[in-house]
Amino acid sequence: MSGKQVYFFGDGHAAGNGSMRNLLGGKGANLAEMVNLGIPVPPGFTISTEACIEYQSTQELTDALKNEAKEALLQVEKVIGKTFADPADPLLFSVRSGARVSMPGMMDTVLNLGLNDDTVLGLAAKSGNERFAYDSYRRLVQMYGDVVMGVEGEKFEHAIDAIKEKTGVSLDNELTPDHLKELIANFKAIILDETGAGFPSDPYEQLWGGVAAVFKSWNVPRAIEYRRIHHIPGDWGTAVNVQAMVFGNMGDSSATGVAFTRNPSTGENEFYGEFLVNAQGEDVVAGIRTPQQLNQHGREMLPAGNKAKDLPTLEDVMPESYSELCAIRTQLEKHYCDMQDIEFTIEDGRLWMLQTRNGKRTGVAAIRVAAEMEAEGIVSTEKALLLVEPDHLDQMLHDQIDPSAELKVLTTGLPASPGAAQGTIVFSAEEAVEVAGDGTKVVLVRRETSPEDIAGMNVAQGILTSRGGMTSHAAVVARGMGKPCVAGCGELIVDNENGRIEIGDKSFARGDAITINGTTGAVIEGLPGLVPPHMDDPNLVKVMGWADQTRRLRVRTNADSPHDAQQAREFGAQGIGLCRTEHMFFGEERIMRMREMILADSVEARREALTKLQPMQQEDFDGIFRAMESLPVTIRLLDPPLHEFLPTTEGDIKTLAGDMGVAVERLEQKIESLHEENPMLGHRGCRLSLTYPEICEMQVSAIIGAACACKKGGVDVRPEIMIPLTGTQRELADLRELTIEVATKVIAETGVDVDYLVGTMIEIPRAALLADQMAEVADFFSFGTNDLTQMTFGYSRDDAGVFLPDYVRRGILPADPFQQLDQSGVGQLVEMACKKGRETNPDIHLGICGEHGGDPSSVAFCHKVGLDYVSCSPYRVPIARLAAAQVVVREKLEGGK
Amino acid sequence: MSGKQVYFFGDGHAAGNGSMRNLLGGKGANLAEMVNLGIPVPPGFTISTEACIEYQSTQELTDALKNEAKEALLQVEKVIGKTFADPADPLLFSVRSGARVSMPGMMDTVLNLGLNDDTVLGLAAKSGNERFAYDSYRRLVQMYGDVVMGVEGEKFEHAIDAIKEKTGVSLDNELTPDHLKELIANFKAIILDETGAGFPSDPYEQLWGGVAAVFKSWNVPRAIEYRRIHHIPGDWGTAVNVQAMVFGNMGDSSATGVAFTRNPSTGENEFYGEFLVNAQGEDVVAGIRTPQQLNQHGREMLPAGNKAKDLPTLEDVMPESYSELCAIRTQLEKHYCDMQDIEFTIEDGRLWMLQTRNGKRTGVAAIRVAAEMEAEGIVSTEKALLLVEPDHLDQMLHDQIDPSAELKVLTTGLPASPGAAQGTIVFSAEEAVEVAGDGTKVVLVRRETSPEDIAGMNVAQGILTSRGGMTSHAAVVARGMGKPCVAGCGELIVDNENGRIEIGDKSFARGDAITINGTTGAVIEGLPGLVPPHMDDPNLVKVMGWADQTRRLRVRTNADSPHDAQQAREFGAQGIGLCRTEHMFFGEERIMRMREMILADSVEARREALTKLQPMQQEDFDGIFRAMESLPVTIRLLDPPLHEFLPTTEGDIKTLAGDMGVAVERLEQKIESLHEENPMLGHRGCRLSLTYPEICEMQVSAIIGAACACKKGGVDVRPEIMIPLTGTQRELADLRELTIEVATKVIAETGVDVDYLVGTMIEIPRAALLADQMAEVADFFSFGTNDLTQMTFGYSRDDAGVFLPDYVRRGILPADPFQQLDQSGVGQLVEMACKKGRETNPDIHLGICGEHGGDPSSVAFCHKVGLDYVSCSPYRVPIARLAAAQVVVREKLEGGK
Q1: Whole-model pTM?
Q2: Is A670 near chain B, with CB under 8 Å?
Q3: Which residues of B touch A806 (CB under 8 A)?
């Protein structure tokens, strides 16, 4: 490593700027940017992410790095007019991590570096506040012991409890300087005891230890777990920000707070935040003391009974600082063209900004912020589109509690993340993972959450906490995950030990059912009915309108019933990209006919059973065509292996044999004869239609029959018949010929001429490799990326659970390829097939109907390779619409068009 | 169709020539070529294969075609000095099919076209032989009724039987002209009765009907079946040869025969053939009369007791014609540079050649012909290599009867196709297919075979017939298929009706066991021991030597034991390309250790079980390294899913539970937990080693341990460790790292430095698509085309039997892709992977270890895409060596290098 590794900032001048996020991390880049904007920021320096990556292999800070850091430190001393390690008036530093993207709570922080038994005296003298000085020192030793030296945090908590008990005080801030001195000594003893090494009194040693600890924390298990969930590459590294300390805990003219430039829950254009007088920043986020509101508007928004409703606002207690903060708020929003999440400290009446970053927000808020910022002229419509993350829309589509349901509301907490969630109560992340493992829905109930809980939050339906505010860990993470969350629910008593919660005089045990409403903060007994959400939010309509104007990709839906089709149409689907006909065969009466068909001994008997099924199929298609009037409907012919329709248990087999009047043995033989070693690679898809053309004939007859009937009734129908699982041109050509033959006959019989297309799924690797041949006999390709992923990787989706999560965790795969399209492998086949297909059939229509059609990164890929449409489940349609627009905007911005 | 469709030949001049095989068919091109060589050939004309293809869509002969044919017919009249349909002295024609490649017995023939109630009188008068004339007419009506008009042949046979009974004669040739006239009238009545149409008396109508019948016969089921088995495309079509009739049945100065220019069974350079005096050509091939030998040498070769041993030879009875034939024999061999299969007729002392084509031959014969023709200067060594078909070698490798076995020889027939075969007796093709369907070995016993029997012959181990000679249908087809055959076994009485055979006083029923020795003609009771063949034939050694000098591809073998390795080395294997370690785990004691390992609850317990397995594995590798001294040995790490090693039946599970001292329930749970929906796509291959690195460690330890021990003992070892089923670079990189770590440790411990390679199978489509990445961390790629085919097609090899044979039969696939590499799909991936792999790792070593490594067309493909070696089962090694040489020769010939 030879390049520059340390970037100074302070006093209106920074070596870095906001565009250097990859090198300086989000926080470092923004600190530099703020300094350049003239905003008051404590001076400091950022050590680059490259230094972090270098550290990972050597596990040592190089002399070059230390020398550069020392030079920057001298600049800080000059700006601030104090000296590091000066016993008379010591300059103190904080050390914080700052990765390229925000990883809340994942990385570790150490404050008050530079204090020791000598300098603490200087701090006490200069501040005129001995208690403050020793409390700061106590915090340093505690944090340093925990974070840098790896002592279990609980040991220090026990020591605090012990001294409180001994002295009879109940709150931390009641401890006297002498108590604190004793505590510091105890802490040092604990550290020596636990690690065999003493707490370092040399400020430089403290500094290097802190920097190294941040670097190390990049690879602690919880950071890796967070990256796994959020698909962050391990080789990005984190930067380290070393910054002069300013103190919000220097007395009643000091304060510290966090704020959003707009309400992160609703998106309302009101300055929204919380602060604590005489506190350090961590106190606000940790959720231990109840924070106060920034302004009157925030206080009004609090639910009745919330403690903070009676506490004064920053506007009340420090009007000048508040006013300065408001000006900075406006300046930052205009500069960053986005809502900001800021941290500030007021030291003895002077405002310092510690951080700004784009604020996490709920889906509703994201939509509102985008719409209003555009209206306010802060962003263009195109940039406004980028203010909404596709996953935000998911929240808009979350279940809500049925308004007509009678609710037993137990209590109300903070509405930390919108939507309703219900499930059985679990008390820990491990329990959540375990219980949810078998498909049970769970609500995770905690006093407060911490980064260790990430995995449990990820599998829970929703999160309920008894402590913490809107910016608590639980709230921030839940919003990021798009999960309903009720936080800071003070009436809730969580008894982990006995697996119980108490709310008033009611008590609930592990396994009891509970519902939370993250939109209102209500905690509700039992499982009231839920209703699906609506898409009628006017801001959403506006933003989605921009998206629809911007995107090139069309968005269809995967729907197998008129109901789903209608739902998807309301979500903006422009047709059906995949209608799975087999789902129609599982109804009570139909499954019997289906079984008769499968068990038929002759073509005639099979035809007879199919004749009975045909009117039912035709009725299904009729309903779907009507729901999708004037839009294309792609119907896939029978795909699964026939044994999926037969009973498996002894009892069911006996019943069926009785119903059908065949011997049990004969039925068992037939079922046995249909058994396959690897059904995924067996007799299914077009292979069935080639063996039993009469099945194909019945289905085509029903499709075209329904289409003709609809058209006769004035309904504009656009059927597209899709042949699944083709791997050779002849399979497709033969079945296309049969399809056209049957369709022509039906059209002749009904006397109604219906236009229709005949195409194929591309889901077998060979079909993609030979797409030029396939395209010669196809009107369209629809990429079935689920099966294509299975075969390209050789993974059975049903079985890969044994190793796939482990593969993702260990970084063998960057993501689950069934969730995010594997662009380099499976995507290579898709791209090749598009190119080859268009070579021999320039008019071919190209789409995707795998689950990936609703995944934002996969949608962007589909746009780039030139597909005509994506198709996804109804609830993913708005997300796909937005993702399809965003990729266009990003292309424009990057391409400078 | 506008081009020329009809090609005249005769009188030393032909419109076509021998190079026009695609257009004129093999027979037509050779007739033209023979005419151009000045060889006496009855004049005629060939209607092109293009006309046949055109006919398939219209099912009509166009006027253009008829006019062209009439012009050619006029030329024939001019040459021969007779006129078609002339009542005084009629010119008669034969109509025969002739496809691009010989399809014996597949296509239909009509003789004597031009005869009717008027012209028969002229023929009788001119020939002075009324019986001959009416017998010719009878044959025409019978053949025409059968072949052109579709009357069941049996009806005519019944009519013949009836007239014989009525008149009291027992042989056809005892029928008088009046009998024949009555028979002709009866035949015509049968035709009218069966078809509603009369036998056409107009010679031109007869001609067009005959031509159309040949065209139609291209697509009869038995022709399609033959093409399926021999991989002949359906769009080649057949030509039609219309040729002036010459008669071998005009009396005792006439004869007809078939011959091979060398002995097709042994390859000996002796003129070898059979003939019948006063007979038409079909009589010889049909095997109804016992044919006589061409010359003394042939007669000497006959087994004692063969009727023909006492019959005069052609040399005896027609010495001039024989001498002329010998000259033609030499001329043809020199001209065609290959052994010829010829048909001739002697009409009243004058020799006419009816056909020449490259002769089918046994493997031994092919090798001898190639070696001797090279020695005689007829062909170069390179062209000699092309005289051997790779499948011929298969016969050289067939089982032979153990020379030390005591044999109960029941009788001896003609040694029609070499090798020994044994199995239970079946009496029809259908029965053969049915009984062989469950893996039972069968010997097909027939009076004589016909094209309808092809499917049955294909599944039988061998064929035994009671009638017919060395050129009978059974003999020709069996040699083509490389199956042992004993033909013309006169002592054998086949009683189809009662499902019995009788030989002397012994009787055998359906299902009894029998053995035939196609090399000696012996028919043997029961199932004597068989021994594997040897490769020590000096001609074979010579030819294989040329092959080894010519080929670029190296040939390795797939072998899992020292015995197989040794066997393959004798067959010329240049190393092991695939050693499957899992096969070593199924031994009695080993399977217990393996199960302990699988059922272990902890890494420690697993390691303990593995520690017990390690010495056993190491011993296996030791033996293999020694057998393959100085040659590379590629060892694949554990590949199959673990549940394959566990018991499946209730009893076995109980026993195992008892042996291991675990509860049955627990064992059942474990087995259940290892169950997979699609094991082919499940937890196997490298995925196992990533989950349980200790398995990989044990195996690498055993491999390198054995290698070090061998090297210490002076054995030159070249281990190559192969990681299976990789689909991502990280899988391979991680396991490569582990492998090297373990190997380094073993090498350090033993103090013996062993060179080894670490590479991977390429069998997952994604690995091929991303071969550039894979190659960065691989010393070699070995294409596992079995799995690659499964995944590229989405076919489970275990399950595809339901539809794959049908796919091949219907031409949806040109061949079973598990037998012949699918070059356009799977091959595309192989080619891509070679190219990409060499881009990032120019030194990478490339091979194939799927079954395709022993398939000639696939070997040629492997050569063309630039692989370094192929690996196949030991018995396919010589075939692969030859195929690898032939592709080089063909490239030279085609490329003109």
Answers
A1: 0.80
A2: no
A3: 690-691
